[in-house]
Structure formats: C-alpha cells, structure tokens
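Researcher: Sequence recovery benchmark, item below. Answer with residues only.
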C-alpha cells in the first residue's frame, strides 16, 4: 500500500495537479485582497480557497505516509508542512500576520518544481560570497558618503548635508535611479565633481554589482555540474547492473548449451 502511495505522490501527473492547485490558490489569495471582487464573489472565492487547503492537507498526509520518517529530514518537506500548518491555524483569517503568511503558499512552487529548487539551492550557496561582496559595496558606499558630505554638503545640503543623507544619495546613485538629478547641484557648484561621481558609478554599479551576478552564475554552473554528476553516477550504476545481468544471463545460456551438447 505504501509503495502505491509513494508512486502516486512521485508521479508526474500528481505533481502537475499540485502545481495547478497552487496556482489556483495563488489566484484566490490575490482575489481576497480586492474588496470589489470579494463583494461580488466572496463566497465562491472562499469556498475555492478552502478546497485548495483541503487538497494541500491531503497531499501532505499522503507524502508523510509514503516517505515515513524520512519526510521530516527534507528541508523542502518541512517548508511545505509549515505552510500548510499556517493555513490550518485557528484565527488565521483574523490576525494580520497570519493573513500575510498565507501568501507563502505560493512559494510551494519552489518545492514542487525541480528547476526552481535547483536555482534556490544555488542561491543559498552564494550567501558567503554575496556577503563578502555586500561588505565591499557597503564600505565603498560609506567611504564615498563621508567624502561627499565633506565636499558637497554646502552645495547640496538636502542630499549631502549629513552622513545619513549622503548614504541614501550614494546608495540611490548605485541603483542608477535618477542619479543625474542627484549629482546636478553638486556638479553645478563644483564642475570637477563629475570625476568623483563617475569613478563612484563605475566602481559600484559596473564593477561591484557585476560581481554579484558573477557569483550567482558560478553557483548555478556548479549546481548544474553536481546534478549532471549525480545523473551520470546513477546511469553508471544502472549500466553496471544491466551488464552484470547480461553476463549472468550469458553464463546461464552457456550452461544450458553445454548440457544440451552432453545429451
């Protein structure tokens, strides 16, 4: 019985069915924040939402039964269980925090679709590298903000009058959002300020931020290589098993032929 349930929950049709339910549930969550929609279709929307939650509960129960204790050793399994338990929490529709957490059910797509799981796993592995690059960017912003406060505080006190204002301005320049208008008053007062801001933009927006992309791409490549190695290992084991079975079969056939010849 357990093997049949395991085959069911691991089947492609079942996975696609759950993905469809997740998408329907995501649409319901979005509709629930629209007062006009709920005024006209509130009862139907609530009913559909409850049906999707029931399906999620049934799915979790089946997976726990199929996998047994090993279910609780999987991080994604625990995440799915946590999301479903939020939906079953009494008063989840009354408390704002729990209402907000209900949207996490949409994130179940991450645990259901394998390609998304691989991307998330790769991004998690980039955390140490990202932290180092983030620290480098933070130091660059801080040093530049201190310099900008000293050099342009009088010319543009609104943006560079204090260290806090300068930090916000330099971070905004890093994102490329309206940077021309931010530096305009300072450049009008000190034409040589162009040199300072151009150096900062090149260093922060074009060099440091691209390092984030490089680290992410490297992690994705590494994750893809690991998956490929796992697949090759499984294929090699299967091939060895098949070759061993063929060799055994040849031995048995040879033995039968020998007996026939002796007769």
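Model:
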């Amino acid at each position: 019985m357990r093997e049949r349930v395991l085959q069911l929950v691991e089947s492609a049709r079942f996975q696609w069915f759950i993905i469809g339910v997740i998408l329907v549930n995501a649409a319901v969550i979005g509709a629930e924040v629209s007062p006009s929609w709920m005024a006209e279709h509130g009862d139907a929307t609530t009913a559909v939402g409850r049906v999707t939650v029931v399906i999620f509960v049934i799915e979790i129960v089946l997976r726990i039964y199929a996998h047994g204790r090993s279910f609780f050793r999987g991080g994604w399994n625990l995440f799915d269980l946590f999301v479903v338990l939020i939906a079953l929490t009494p008063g989840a529709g009354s408390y704002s925090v729990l209402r907000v957490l209900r949207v996490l059910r949409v994130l179940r797509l991450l645990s259901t679709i394998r390609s998304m799981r691989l991307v998330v796993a790769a991004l998690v592995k980039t955390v140490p590298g990202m932290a180092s690059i983030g620290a480098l960017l933070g130091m660059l912003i801080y040093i530049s903000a201190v310099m900008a406060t000293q050099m342009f505080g009088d010319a543009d006190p609104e943006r560079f009058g204090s260290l806090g204002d300068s930090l916000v301005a330099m971070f905004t320049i890093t994102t490329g959002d309206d940077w021309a208008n931010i530096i305009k008053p300072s450049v009008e007062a000190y034409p040589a300020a162009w040199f300072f801001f151009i150096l900062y933009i090149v260093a922060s927006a074009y060099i440091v931020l691209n390092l984030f992309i490089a680290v992410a791409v490297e992690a994705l490549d590494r994750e893809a290589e690991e998956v490929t190695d796992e697949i090759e290992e499984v294929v090699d084991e299967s091939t060895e098993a098949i070759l061993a079975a063929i060799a055994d079969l040849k031995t048995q056939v040879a033995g039968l032929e020998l007996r026939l010849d002796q007769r």
